[in-house]
Every structure is written in C-alpha cells, then in structure tokens.
Amino acid sequence: MPTSTKKKPAVKLPQDHRPTNAAMREALNRPATFTFDGEEWTVTPADATGLEFLEALEDEQIIAALRILLGPEQAHRLIKGRRVEDLEGFFEAMGEVAEVGNP
Predict the structure, then answer these.
(1) CA angle at residue 88 from 83 to 92, to 5 degrees?
(2) Residue 73 covered by a domain
(3) Is residue 11 part of a domain?
(4) Rounded Cα–Cα distance for residues 35 and 21 (Å)
(5) Domain total of the chain
(6) What pLDDT is stored for residue 18 in this prediction?
(7) Which end of the chain is less crowded, N or C, counting CB atoms within 10 A of the terminal residue's CB?
(8) Whose CA is closest to 62, among 41, 39, 97, 91?
(9) Is the alpha carbon torsion for 78, 103, 72, 47 positive or negative?
(10) 32-91 pLDDT, tens digit each
(11) Residue 55 pairs with which residues in a beta bridge?
C-alpha cells in the first residue's frame, strides 16, 4: 500500500500568535484618547510604562509624573482645580483605554 508523502499543516501554538516586538512597540506608541471628568485626554501608552514616569511616581513627584505622561499643557489642565484624590479616577480611565493598568 503506498504511503502519502503529504505533510500535515503545522499546528499553531498560542505562543505563535504573540505580537512581534515591533508590533508591540507600535501599539505602545499609538496615542490613546479617553474621557475623564467630562474632558478628553490623550496619552501614549509607552509614556505610561516608561521608567522616567514610573520613577517620578515612586519618588512621589506626582506633578512631574503627570507632565511626563501628559505633556505640560494637559498636565496643567488636569492639575487645575483638582486634588490628589481625583487622580485615582483619571488613572483608572487612562488604564482602561491605554491597556496598561494603573501605573
């Protein structure tokens, strides 16, 4: 009886579906827009995971961290008339759209 020489198609494993490093970098550098407290905000996910931002947060330099994350204009707009307690909702909204979780 003749045997078939046809190869079976390769099975794709879950790890084969991971995005490449280049695709991940591109996604992290794509600006994400969201609404918080009736205003529209734009962040770049890479900024929310950058070491400079995380260092400022760890050092409790909240204003510096916001400037790194948002840029000076948006940071000023966020800071004006708000309290530190208001930032929890901001970070939750940002984390959802930027898919980075709470920084």
Answers:
(1) 145
(2) yes
(3) no
(4) 29
(5) 1
(6) 61
(7) N
(8) 91
(9) negative
(10) 899 999 999 999 888 888 899 999 999 999 999 999 999 999 999 999 999 999 999 998
(11) none
Only one residue has tokens 């204003």, namely: 63
Q: Which residues contact 29 (CB under 8 A, 6 or more apart)?
A: 44, 45, 46
Q: Which domain holds residue 48?
A: 32-98
Residue type, 42: T
The reply to whether 8 falls in a domain is no
pLDDT at 103 over 50: no
Residue 43's CB is within 10 A of a number of other CB atoms, namely: 21
Residue 62: its pLDDT value, please?
Answer: 93
What is this structure's pTM?
Answer: 0.66
Of 24, 66, 73, 23, nearest in space to 48 by CA: 66
Domain assignment present for residue 87? The answer is yes
